[in-house]
């Protein structure tokens, strides 16, 4: 390689690869968490993820250095509660809904937030396209291989919480960055961990679960957030948002690779509709949407 050739780290490809690796990591973490459901249930897996993940974030970002008295506690509590509820609902959805479809349903939350209040005619097209994706996934009576209604409701509820997470996160994280994420994760753990303890009890403390629990925490929180932070310093916000639109497809591929979840042609079409709608809304926005951590 000549001296004038750009290195990988200085090229635009590097942050793109970082963000793609982050999304693969978080969906692989969700796949690993789903394998814990038979032992500790969805709420138990959520408790393990947020419990261990919060410890790792505290070690990495040292939130105890924050000016505690000056923090926007109302926004921070809203951020943490929405994060904890979102994770719980998403894992409840994964009990009966394939990973890629759960991510697509959840993704409608931030997509609706991006389109809210828009008066551009083209944004109506993206909204209708996203609605088409939802219609294809709705468990209509009599449909073959229809999705579980409760799982669908949980995934959509997780999407609503994701939108709230973004709103609260914008206001809570200003000026303090990843340290506020670590602190917000603590509040999220206070919301989710008790449910896991009630459901799984002492099974959460089984030594045999420790490697998988740590793996979920690393893959779902510590590693993807670190990769994302590096990508955010090198990517325009609009490009970041467009790449994030690929997450439902990455979730579907991880579900296929790790969980052997095969989707029908209509289900892949639904995922494609959500991806195109999200990418179109992001690229067409006058003001680029804020970059937010990957919370699935």
From TrEMBL:
Keyword Transmembrane appears in the UniProt entry: yes
Domain called EamA: residue spans: 150-279
KW Transmembrane helix (keyword) present: yes
Transmembrane segments: 43-61, 99-117, 124-143, 149-168, 180-198, 204-227, 239-259, 265-285
Alphabetical UniProt keywords: Membrane, Transmembrane, Transmembrane helix
Pfam families membership: EamA
UniProt protein name: Threonine/homoserine exporter RhtA
Origin species: Pseudoxanthomonas winnipegensis
Underlying gene: rhtA
């Amino acid at each position: 390689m000549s001296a004038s050739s750009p290195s990988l780290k200085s090229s635009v490809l590097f942050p793109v690869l970082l963000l793609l690796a982050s999304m693969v990591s978080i969906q692989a973490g969700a796949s690993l968490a789903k394998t814990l459901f038979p032992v500790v249930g969805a709420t138990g897996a959520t408790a393990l993820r947020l419990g261990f993940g919060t410890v790792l974030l505290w070690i990495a970002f040292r939130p105890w250095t924050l000016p505690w008295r000056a923090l926007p506690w109302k926004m921070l509590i809203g951020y943490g509660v929405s994060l904890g509820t979102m994770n719980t609902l998403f894992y409840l959805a994964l009990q009966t809904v394939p990973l890629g479809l759960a991510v697509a349903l959840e993704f409608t939350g931030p997509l609706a937030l991006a389109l809210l209040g828009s008066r551009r005619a083209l944004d109506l097209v993206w909204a209708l396209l996203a609605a088409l994706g939802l219609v294809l996934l709705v468990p209509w009576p009599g449909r073959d291989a229809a999705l579980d209604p409760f799982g669908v409701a949980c995934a959509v509820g997780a999407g609503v919480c994701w939108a709230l997470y973004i709103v609260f996160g914008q206001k809570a994280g200003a000026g303090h960055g990843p340290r506020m994420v670590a602190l917000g994760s603590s509040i999220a753990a206070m919301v989710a961990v008790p449910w896991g303890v009630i459901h799984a009890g002492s099974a959460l403390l089984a030594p045999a679960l420790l490697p998988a629990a740590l793996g979920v925490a690393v893959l779902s929180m510590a590693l993807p957030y670190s990769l994302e932070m590096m990508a955010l310093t090198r990517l325009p916000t609009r490009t970041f948002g467009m790449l994030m639109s690929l997450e439902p497809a990455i979730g579907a591929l991880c579900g296929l690779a790790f969980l052997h979840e095969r989707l029908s042609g209509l289900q892949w079409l639904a995922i494609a509709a959500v991806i195109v709608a999200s990418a179109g809304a992001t690229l067409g926005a006058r003001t680029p949407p804020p970059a937010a951590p990957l919370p699935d």
